[in-house]
Amino acid sequence: MEAVRIGSEEHARLFCRTFVETHRPFRAQDIVWPQLDEEQLARLKGLPVWDEAARTEAATAVKVQTLGNEETDPVLKEAIALQGYEEGRHAEIIALLTKTYGIPTAPFGSPEKPKNPTWTFLRTGYGECLDSFFAFGLFDIGRRSEFFHQDLIALFDQIMQEEARHILFIVNWAAYLRARSPLPLRPVFDARRAWNIAAQAFDRVKGALQMAGGNGGEEKDGSKEKAKGTQDGFTLKSHAVFGDFTLRSFLELCVAENERRLSPYDPRLLRPALVPGVVKLLLKFLPRNGRRRAAAS
Ligand SMILES: [Fe+2]
Ligand SMILES: [Fe+2]
Q1: DSSP string for the chain
Q2: Cα 28 to ligand 1 centre (Å)
Q3: pLDDT tens digit string along 203-232?
Q4: Exposed site from 51, 180, 212, 288, fewest CB < 10 Å?
């Protein structure tokens, strides 16, 4: 298999075609929601993610759809518009799920259209690279625990895989844009991209600190946990159900899941390198004496 030159037409066709051909068509309203018993329902309601997920997916859909509408290259347009459609479907799925199972979510206004869709997409995309890396690991812990109904696990496995395709697209699209910008402007592109990535990382650190501080989080085995509020039931039982993880075993799982999720796609495409690279470096320095290792499934 011959390598493709990053920034070439062939590269654009490859990452767009990969994205379009791996799209799975289905409608959110056709999902058959499984009947949950009381315990399963309480577990689902106890997950501290619904407000954030509902708001973020709706906002991301508008951001990506705006770029899809404005893109003039037909090859890029088709893939970006499809990604916007998938984000809209994620938002619909979250809305249907919370409605079906009576999970209250805070109302939010309609998301604003971005003023600079290209850089907004880039910034959001790198945020997805950060979030997905850890989400893949967390999801796998949930999958192994069989803590949730298997139909819901299967549905969210599909959404995780869509996010893997999104981050694969974004790193290739960003590299394509960079390669096509005039040589003297590349340092400006790099600086702006680095600034956007740093802003996204800072957002996550700030959010984690707020969660830990505002909710009386305690640190155990390197993980911050919520210990108050509506998530009591979730956190108190989570050790028993999910098992204990050291920070090392959790990060190793994230690295492995990240590689597994991105492995089905054309090897000539770029993979997200920053977050896995930093985490792999960190793993070199973390102690190996984890008493409680993540057991392989
Ligand atoms: Fe999404
Ligand atoms: Fe996404």
Answers
A1: -----TTSHHHHHHHHHHHHHT-----GGG--PPP--HHHHHHHHH-TTHHHHHHHHHHHHHHHHHHHHH--SHHHHHHHHHHHHHHHHHHHHHHHHHHHTT------PPPPPPSSHHHHHHHHHHHHHHHHHHHHHHHHHHHHHT-S-HHHHHHHHHHHHHHHHHHHHHHHHHHHHHHHS-GGGHHHHHHHHHHHHHHHHHHHHHHHHHHHHHTT-EEETTEEE--SGGGHHHHHHHHHHH----HHHHHHHHHHHHHHHHTTS-TTS----HHHHHHHHHHHHS-S--SSPPPP-
A2: 13
A3: 888 877 776 665 433 333 333 333 333 333
A4: 288
